[in-house]
Design goal:
Number of helices: 2
Oligomer: single chain
Radius of gyration: 23 Å
Shape: rod-shaped
CATH topology: Ribosomal protein S3 C-terminal domain
CATH class: Alpha Beta
Number of strands: 4
Strand order of the largest sheet: 2-1-4-3
Distance between the termini: 50 Å
Order of helices and strands: HHEEEE
Largest sheet: 4 strands, antiparallel
Strand content: 25-35%
Number of domains: 1
């Protein structure tokens, strides 16, 4: 009888340990997976923006914000920085709530325009506001 009680106590302690460790580990894994997802989304948006032939024409901040807003997934805040390395100008736009993001990831892409002999570096940072 003592052996059965001891076995039940071991099972209860093991289940309690598994439950508590899952409660503390799962949110961390979830945030890590969210980060990798954001990073891939940011890389995709940066690559699409860099490979488009419209990039040299996107010098208006509102136009760039509209295009990136259409490319970015819903419910994501973003900051986009386009740098023309040859002409040494930078254009940066972001959504109003980007500073409130608690999780963000950056994707970088390069584009060289043979017609205008320019090299562009596109840095897209996508963020998400987590928690309450």
């Amino acid at each position: 009888m003592r052996a059965l009680e001891l076995a039940l106590m071991v099972v209860v302690v093991a289940l309690l340990y598994a439950t508590l460790s899952a409660v503390s580990v799962m949110p961390k894994l979830s945030l890590r997976n969210d980060y990798f997802l954001l990073r891939e989304e940011a890389r995709s948006v940066a690559a699409i923006l860099a490979e488009s032939r419209a990039l040299p024409k996107l010098r208006d901040p509102e136009l760039l914000r509209t295009v990136v807003g259409a490319l970015a997934p819903p419910n994501r805040e973003f900051r986009v920085e386009v740098v023309d390395v040859v002409r040494n100008w930078t254009l940066t736009v972001e959504t109003p709530n980007f500073g409130d993001c608690t999780l963000a990831a950056t994707g970088v892409a390069m584009y060289s325009d043979p017609r205008s002999s320019s090299i562009y570096v596109v840095r897209v940072t996508l963020g998400r506001i987590t928690g309450g």
